[in-house]
Amino acid sequence: MTMTMTCDTAIPSLDEIHYTVDEAANKLVGLKDAQEEMIELLTGGSKQLKIVSIVGMPGLDKTTLTNFVYNHPSINLQFHVHAWCSVSQVYDKDTLLFAIFGQVVGKTIQINETSREDLDQKLYQSLKGGKYLIVIDDIWDIKA
User: Fold this and answer.
1) Angle 26-72-95 (CA atoms, 0-180°, nearest 5)?
2) Which helix (H) or strand (E) holds 64?
3) Domain named NB-ARC: which ranges (predicted)?
């Protein structure tokens, strides 16, 4: 089984890196390189927006790999704002946006407390000009 990690930057380029996971032992095998590659993708080079996608079949330890990178000290030093949200099987854009907002701003608000446009603007203002890392985990559908 393979897991694919891709990085999409503002400059149209796509890098694919394949890593093998030993499912029988359910342990990360050979993912040290993947961890280092992800950290380098996120911390090195350009300051332009980067989107790193990790795709593969369930059970390949994509979340484990991402969690390691998310909590790595060099990531914590580079990114002033962190958010981790899970989509799962039921995708709702507003719920996801409110969850991200709650982690970025540090307070939760109810969906009926503010308009979607106000929330969009508040989140944009909170992220504008800074470096941030937002992980959206467990996406099941391309629509999400």
Assistant:
1) 80
2) helix 62-70
3) 34-142
Return d(Cα 136, Cα 100) in angstroms, integer.
9
**pLDDT tens readout for residues 53-69:** 888 888 878 888 888 89
> What is the chain's percent helix, strand, coil content, to nearest 5?
40, 25, 35
Asked, for residue 124, whether it belongs to a domain, the answer is: no
Burial (0-12, 13-18, 19+ Cβ within 10 Å), 115: exposed
Instruction: Give residue-wise pLDDT tens across range 1-16.
Output: 445 454 443 322 333 3
Domain count, the chain: 1
Give the chain's length.
Answer: 144
Residue 71 lies in a domain: yes
